[in-house]
Write the structure tokens for this entry.
Amino acid sequence: MNRKVPRELVEALVSGKLFCILGHAEPDGDCVGSQVALGHFLSRLGGEVHLLSPGPFQRPEIVPFASRFELAMEPALRERRPLVVVVDCSALERIGDFAASIGGLTTIVIDHHSSGRGFGDLTYIDPTSPSVTLLVERVISSMGGTPDETEARMLFFGLGTDTGFFRHLDARDPDVYEAMARLNGAGATPKQIYEMIYSGKPLASRILLGRALSRTEALFDGRVLSTYETIEDMRTFGAESRDSDSLYQLLQATGGCEAVILIREEDERTCSVGLRANGGIDVGAIAGAFGGGGHKKAAGFEWTGSREAIKELLLRELSALFRAP
Ligand SMILES: [Mn+2]
């Protein structure tokens, strides 16, 4: 547990004038929320701020922010030696080509992942924090500031995203709720943030959801639910219509369900596999056996081969855990 923001890190931010704030590839609400809020705060203090991202901005809830981000670091900007802040990112590979651009520049890392190889000159990492935005809130207050309304909303947005709108908060941790109370006092409400995260989805995504649900197969007496999406689905509905979060949520609500498998054909040769667990099963370990990774309750991997073939391999792996009593 590392709740106190390191003093050197605070001093670097306070004395900085030019900042590049970077996040991971395929950004999500926690990443974007952390970048926008911290950038907004540093601008208010008079800093020049550049928000950088490898993109792509696919999730509908972050599309409205895409135009604020630069997809590469201009050489002229690099020559001015900005202070780099990397958020929500535990490994350099996750920032793509920026890993080369930030070489030799002082780099701050603010993150809540427990895995990954460390990088950065000054780090603030707290794996007990449900979102990076809550760490950014602590950074802002350590710098003597208070989030304004824009910052409070972005910070709440990140927390709402990473906790599945607070459904995954299961620790007894009043600090989280005290932070939420402060953000609410600054103008962020659950209703606004719920709409930011969950509204505005294309109709095609609802129809695709229906297709994937109707294909669900109950395995091991319903303890495992498995479904899939095809290349044809992607052609018909578009990649932006994929909504695995909603699909997992609906399937995981099934009585007796302990794990969910989602197999997606990415192209003629490759599938991506998503795994979710309700109970005690460690799907991170299963994904790891196939060269992937993740957490105990949410993990995934990429696979070269057909949808049927990967399902067979997964069933073999799972049968040890789910053999009928
Ligand atoms: Mn995060």
About this structure: The mean pLDDT is 93.
